[in-house]
Amino acid sequence: MGTLRRDGATLRVTDTGEGPAVVFQHGLGGGEAQAAQTFPTGFRRITLECRGHGGSGFGERRPFSFEMFADDVLAAADQAGLDRFIAGGVSMGAAIALSLACRHPRRVAGLILVRPAWTFSAAPQNMQPIAEVAELILEHGADKARTIFAQSETATRLNREAPDNLSSLLGYFDRPDSKAFAQVLADIAGDGPGVSERDVAALDIPALVVGNAVDAVHLLSAAHALAAAMPNATLAEITPKARDSARHFSELHAQIAAFLQTHSKVRSRIFS
Where do runs of H (alpha helix) occur along 195-244? Predict the structure, then answer.
């Protein structure tokens, strides 16, 4: 595990496994542990814990944004000596990877987008529960905010329709840095990867898009939209984590591993 210094923040970088590297990013509120859980073993993975996530500092720049996080990830790839690489991630990490591919097409040779939550616009409606949590914490502090949120219509709806999302949201109140991290939540929930459908349609690279139902934040329709927009994308629908977590990750690992193995010749040419 190494570090990267950016704008007064020390950012933690994991480089694990062997072979050509895949730069794979965690979701909003996640970190190295989430990336390790999401990505299959047997491949080299580089993960930068974004500002305010995991063991990384918040830094001095504000507001937090996808452009900021993507630039940090590209700096980590540079530090690792990667010229071209496959980029991927889960949720926010998928949006970071997509932003990198559109802004730096020479650098990104393939995409792995797991449970994408953003498509082509900023502040999508599915991010509203996260924005709501952030606003409550910033205004009331974590303890009072949790009580208010637990009684809200949003929490009631998610408990009924997407309990896995509700569990993730409640975790934001338990963070020791909840007040500082709430600003990250607010900024990212109100932002977007800064790509258009036209930008994505121009990506002439292999892509895997993985989605599932029973998820109010990572809409299956977002996975369908992104896969449909890219000329060389494969869409995989897997078991929802809310229904069977073990099966969800088993199927996810199999899909990512098959994608990487299928494109192994391409990867060998890229990294030779």
Answer: 197-201, 220-229
State yes or no: cis peptide before 63, omega within 30 of 0: yes
The burial class, CB within 10 Å (0-12 / 13-18 / 19+), for 94 is buried
With pLDDT > 90 as the criterion, what percentage of the chain qualifies?
96
Q: Is 208 helix (H, G, I), strand (E, B) or coil?
A: strand
Mean pLDDT over all residues of the chain? 96
Asked whether residue 34 carries a pLDDT value surpassing 80, the answer given is yes
Query: Tokens 């219509």 correspond to what residue?
Result: 153
Cα 152 to Cα 10, 40, 157, 219, distances in angstroms: 37, 37, 9, 21
pLDDT for 178 equals: 98
**Hey, what amino acid is at 138?**
L
